[in-house]
Amino acid sequence: MVSNRDIITGLDIGTNAIRIVMGQRMPEGRLKIIGAADTPSEGIIRGSINSIEEAVSVISETIEKCERMTGMRIDKIVVGISGSHIKTISSKGVVAVAKANEQVEDSDVERALEVAENTTTLPNYEILHVLPISYNLDDQKNIREPQGMSGVRLEVETQVVLALSSQVKNMTKVIYRTGVDIEFIVFSILATAEAVLTVKQKELGVAVVNIGSATTSLAVFEEGNILHTAVLPVGAGHITNDLAIGLKTSVEVAESVKIDHGQAIDDGISKRDEVDLHKYSEEEKKGSYVYKKDIVDIAQARLEEIFSLVKDELKAIDRDGKLPGGIILTGGGAKMPMIVDLAKDVLELPVFLGMPVDSHFPIDKLNDTEYTTALGLVLWANKNMEGGRGILGNISAISQSTDRMKRWFKSLWPSS
């Protein structure tokens, strides 16, 4: 009989859709994906809750779909968080090695990470993760794992990920009102990376770019460790809005036109090719034709902006054109035809679509760029629960931040 302790469920709260993936930890240690479900979003704008009632309803519906599919009850969940309110800040922590023999132990590393965390405070923000980038031990620089090495002064360079307190509180209220507990809360792009990156890519240097509806998230890895993360305030939904304005039509028609006729590069399109908007809505007059070239030009302009912002982030960390592993595109926005070609032109790097590294799933929908975050949340939690290092290197630091966050958001909701 399967115990609920062996079940891990990931919840991706997106602007366009709510997605859930369920995995089962097998006796031999293998993780088996057994369920997936999705529902169009309501009450979510730009990745943030804007109607608690609507969000509770749609998340509950998605949970019920997954429960019916698997025959398993969901009582706890791993939640991804993203959105333009997420901030990442560089921080350092310095401590003296405690042992008389000057050998670095786990406790020294944890103290250094605590110092880095405690020196990072923003009003109205909560720390999600303290991500170690590298360690310095006396004159030895850029050490990946200092445990067991000898030295006196240990320094850690970190990226601290923070989320707006009000957004975390609102999300917590929504989840608890569905009758489900929160097991972990994870910065979504880190989970996405867990699903789509190989060990070799992380060693070489690679960036994951998740193009969502309202935002685009970025995570850069090098020598196996996280190097940089960012959330950009523009996504595929902005293409829809641009089309609605440019074509003088509704957002609903613009979205359908984008899906059917959008592509990232104006290649092989005749200036005479036309699209009849009336076939998408009876509210449009008969013969309401627009040029397909105009549709593509609008989509291309917005995507060029997104990739230019990604390029600016890479320049800021001196990695522009310097990632041998290239760029991995994920998210719903990555499905637009010819987007890889445009990204190569703008970023001047190898570019690939981010499909799950382990693609042998019995559920077809999981082999889709839109499901990489929900799947990654399950993979992230599985490695964290195992105490393994996963994609983030020093997982103990992540666990500490996560445990503190769990205590904090549990305190927000009264026990019944």
What features would you describe in this structure?
This protein is an alpha+beta fold and 416 residues long. It has 4 domains: 166 residues, ATPase, nucleotide binding domain (Nucleotidyltransferase, domain 5, 2-Layer Sandwich), CATH 3.30.420; 76 residues, Dna Ligase, domain 1; 88 residues, Nucleotidyltransferase, domain 5 (2-Layer Sandwich); 65 residues, Nucleotidyltransferase, domain 5 (2-Layer Sandwich), CATH 3.30.420. Helices cover 36% and strands 28% of the residues. It contains 11 helices and 18 strands. The protein has a 5-stranded mixed β-sheet, with helices on both faces. Strands 14-13-12-17-18 form a 5-stranded mixed β-sheet, with helices on both faces. The chain has a 4-stranded antiparallel β-sheet with strand order 7-10-8-9. A hairpin with a 2-residue loop joins β8 and β9. The relative contact order is 0.15. About 3% of the residues have low confidence.
Top keywords for this entry?
416 residues, alpha+beta, Nucleotidyltransferase, domain 5, Dna Ligase, domain 1, 4 domains, 5-stranded mixed beta sheet, 11 helices
Q: Output the CATH class name of the largest domain.
A: Alpha Beta
The structural domain count equals 4
Largest sheet: 5 strands, mixed
Can you write the helix and strand succession as a string?
A: EEEEEHEEHEEEHEHHEEEHHEEHEHEHH
> Low-confidence spans: pLDDT under 50, at least 5 residues?
388-401
Number of helices: 11
N- to C-terminal separation? 29 Å
Rg from Cα: 22 Å
Structural class, judged by helices and strands?
A: alpha+beta
Q: Could you name the CATH topology of the largest domain?
A: Nucleotidyltransferase, domain 5
| CATH architecture name of the largest domain | 2-Layer Sandwich
Shape: globular
Chain-averaged pLDDT: 89
Helical fraction equals: 25-40%
Across the major sheet, the strand order is 3-2-1-6-11
According to DSSP, the number of beta strands is 18
